[in-house]
Amino acid sequence: MASLIGYYSLIFGFCFSFLIIFFSIKNFRDSNFFDSKLISLSFLQFFFVTISFLGLIISFVNSDFSNETVFNHSHTTKPLFYKISGTWGNHEGSLLLWLLVLTLFIFLFLLRSKNQTKQYRILTLLFQQIIIIGFFIFVIKTSSPFNFIFPIPNEGLGLNPILQDPALAIHPPILYLGYVGSSIIFSSTLAATSLNYISREWAHHIKQWVLISWVFLTIGILLGSIWAYYELGWGGFWFWDPVENVSLMPWLALTTLFHCILVLEKRLILTSWVVVLSIATFTLSMCGTFLVRSGILNSVHTFANDPERGLFILIFLFCLIFLSIFIFFFFHKVKTKNINSIFWFSKDASILINNWFMMYFLSVILIGTTYPIFLEVITSQKISVGPPFYNKLIVPFLIPFLLIMTIGPKLKWIKSDLKDKSYLILSLIFSLIFSILIIKNLNTSFLANTILITSAFYLFFSTLREFFKKRLLNLSQNIAHFGFSLLILSILFNNIFSTEIITNMKIGETFENKNFKINFVRVEKKDEQNFKSIIGKFNIENSNGNIEILRPELRIYNQPNIMTSEADIKTNLLNDQFMTMNLVQNQDYFNIRYQIKPFMVWIWLSVLLITFGALITLFRSKYEN
Amino acid sequence: MKIRIPFLFLTIFFLAIFLVFYKGLQNSNIYVPNNNIEKELPNFQAQLFDKDSEILLKDILKKDKFYLINIWASWCVPCREEHSFLIRLSNQKNIEIVGLNYKDNRQNAKNFLKELDNPYQIIISDKDGTNSIELGAYGVPESFLIYNQKIIKKIIGPLNNKLFIEIKKIIK
After folding, report:
1. Partner of B154 at 20 to 30 A CA spacing, among A94, A187, A246, A533?
2. How many structural domains does chain A have?
3. Quick check: A329 and B115 CB within 8 A?
4. Would you place residue A414 in the very low, low, confident or very high pLDDT band (cuts 50, 70, 90)?
5. Is pLDDT above 60 for A300?
6. Do A256 and A358 meet the contact criterion of CB atoms below 8 Å apart?
7. Å from A577 to nearest chain B CA?
8. How many domains does the structure of chain B reveal?
């Protein structure tokens, strides 16, 4: 029943698209004022998609296995929370969520853009409706979440256990808010370009949307990363997996876009950058959906290898790309009178230089992710691109990037000379000595690490000083940049100082090295609602005689029958102790992996700090309004 | 008009990308062993596992002989499963097994072999995973059956009984 209502309200929502397009065009031609009917229509469209989404949730909660999606992805013994989150833990449901957010955002956009001109608002609505129609057809035609199956099965197939996790339950919706938020930027930029409407006021208005999408995208990526850290049991937080790359690419584009918008708001230059980046952000999000959903890449996120779906997104994606290229070339006019050449020593110039660096990072990731596909099609060779490729190409360029990030914010707009020269040099020397002291006693490559850490410390100290010097001026920027330096430092230290032990142990055995002693005390067995678990108990005694107890866990899920390994992680401010346990087949040995990962928690905290900086900007610009 | 040339250029560029993706979609089944058959082996310098010296891959693999290059690591759970098959294979006369120790800690790897026995004639160690990338591997475990310095079969994932029998047939 709920499925039926869901299906029909989805069709209803689709019909509203045509009503909206019809009335928009009529309004665009005939009247001077914005027709408030359009807002109501957008609301109704959003309303029907919500009903449809709720219908799917109810089907999941009631375990209505006459619905194919529910049958494929749910099970009666699953806890309620995961029944609900299972709604978007699959291809069909997640697309319905996309659609929900698309319609929600255009409704909010119309509400919040009352000060803008009629033509601009209508055109944005029209472009957004093109995207919405594309997704409606995609959902209804190739991946309807409301297919019936008959005879009705008694039991579902269950949700993949590694997806049964609180962080992962909220990761997709938040990530989608970021992805889909970029659709609003896309539509409104196309509208503004066609109307030649790009101005400082427009920049101010669209900045909010950029920030909102940026915040959601960042938190979404963070949640995914945290999940991978404790659930996949590899002890890392970023694997350069195609799916991670696919979310990082729009993030880089969006971050660059935000900085360009700041320049545009101040000086009305870099308009082409803004237009191209707005287009790039959304098309990269779409491109990500394509790469992940079509099965063209193999990855944990590949939901289903259905070429028909892939083909549809591919055609749709390229239609959008060609539309944007067309609009960019035939409507975009650079306002020549406003072009003052950029002075090389100014804030604008440093933002521009770092934009190019960001574009470089973006292209490295883009090439690394898609090159295997190209190579395979053209020469039928298969290669895999792994972390060494990205590390080698990205890490060295972080050094100039960090240095410019340190100096740039101290410069003035348009033209400036450097004040505080002595301080800047002093803090550079200070960072250098500091890093040498840290690196000196380690057997890692001395020069490369010292330079990297120096540049990260340089940004760290100079932003730290700004907090005391300027107090509230540029607070948000300072917090974000401070967070970034902290992030780079934590990642570097995490890489350099990590230690790892992998060994096989029987119950009662003890492993010992000069830093710590691991004692395998016992295993306990437990029965939970949808899995059985084996919990190991380990005493870890470090050289000071402190004893920690770690309890890694093995879970054997009943539906589907999969074994997962849950790491036990003891977190404190200085380091994480990370332990996983695996069964060794047909033996009474367990394979134990024990890692000490310094500054792990600071990686998460610094990303939160950066997000916090963005939030301050967002609220401040709201307040100014 | 001035804008025509970049516009045309970009359009053609994206059309080309579209075509590549379109083609890519059609052979989206990821594991196609056929294409790798008879492929020339890459030749690279590799670090020996138990000595501090390097050796060229082609110097290990003689002509007119079967080899199985097996990518393994002590931290890899499926590697344990396939190990018994490797041991059985190493007792066959006309094949030698070359181990490629992937991103591993040397001590852990040694313990692994001590515990489960060593089927490898020679082991090279691939600390940063670059040798495996050159071979075209996706991950661990993976095995390449080599004859005349050419890959004649590529096995992704652990060996099992079926594959074991298949290999035995090929080398006879």
Report:
1. A246
2. 4
3. no
4. confident
5. no
6. yes
7. 18
8. 2
Q: Are B76 and B102 in a shared domain?
A: yes
Top pLDDT among A424 and A41 is at A41
Torsion of CA A261, A266, A271, A276, to 10 degrees: -10
Considering only the beta carbons, identify the residue of A376, A386, A387 that sits closest to B24.
A376
Q: What CATH number did the domain enclosing B74 receive? A: 3.40.30.10
Residue B37 has pLDDT above 80, yes or no: no
Prediction pTM value: 0.80
Rounded to a whole number of angstroms, the distance from the CA of B55 to the nearest CA of chain A is: 22
* pLDDT of residue A466 exceeding 80: yes
A24 and A96 share one domain: yes
Are residues A367 and A235 part of one domain?
A: yes
With H, G, I as helix, E, B as strand and everything else as coil, classify residue A15: helix
The predicted-structure confidence for A577-612, as pLDDT tens digits, reads as follows 888 888 766 567 788 888 888 888 999 999 999 999
Instruction: Name which of A17-26, A335-344, A435-444 the model is least confident about.
Output: A335-344
Contacts of B101 in chain A (CB under 8 A): none
Contacts of B20 in chain A (CB under 8 A): 373-374, 377-378
- Token pair listed for A270: 């870099």
In a domain, A209, yes or no: yes
Tokens in use for A230?
């404790």
Do A448 and A362 belong to one domain?
no
How open is the CA angle A491-A368-B58, to the nearest 5 degrees? Answer: 100
Residues A110 and A64 in one domain: yes
A138 and A201 both lie in a single domain: no
- CB < 8 Å to A589, chain B: 115
Question: Helix or strand or coil: residue A503?
Answer: strand
Find chain B residues with C-beta within 8 A of A502's C-beta: 74-75, 105, 108
Residues B40 and B18 both lie in one domain: no
Rounded CA gap, A181 and A206, in Å? 11
Name which of B120, B141, B143 is nearest B78 in CA terms.
Answer: B141
What interface predicted TM-score (ipTM) does this complex get? Answer: 0.77
Q: Show the domain range for A620.
A: 402-497+602-624
Q: What angle (nearest 5°) sits at the alpha carbon of residue A404, between those of residues A399 and A410?
A: 145
Q: Both tokens of residue A37?
A: 């009917």
The C-alpha of A377 sits at a distance from chain B's nearest C-alpha, in angstroms, of 6
Element (H, E) at A536: strand A531-542
pLDDT of amino acid A9: 94
Q: E-assigned strands of A543-585? A: 547-550, 553-557, 563-566, 568-571, 575-583
- What mean pLDDT is predicted for residues A308-327? 90
3-state secondary structure A139-153: HHHHCCCCCECCCCC
Tell me, yes or no, if A378 comes closer than 8 A to chain B by beta carbon.
Answer: yes
pLDDT in tens, B51-66: 777 888 878 887 778 8
Q: Which is nearest to A405 in space by CA: A212, A255, A604?
A: A255
B40 close contact with A: CB closer than 8 A: no
Q: Which of A64-73, A173-182, A291-300, A357-366 has the lowest mean pLDDT?
A: A291-300
Determine the structural domain holding residue B142 and report its residue range. Answer: 34-171
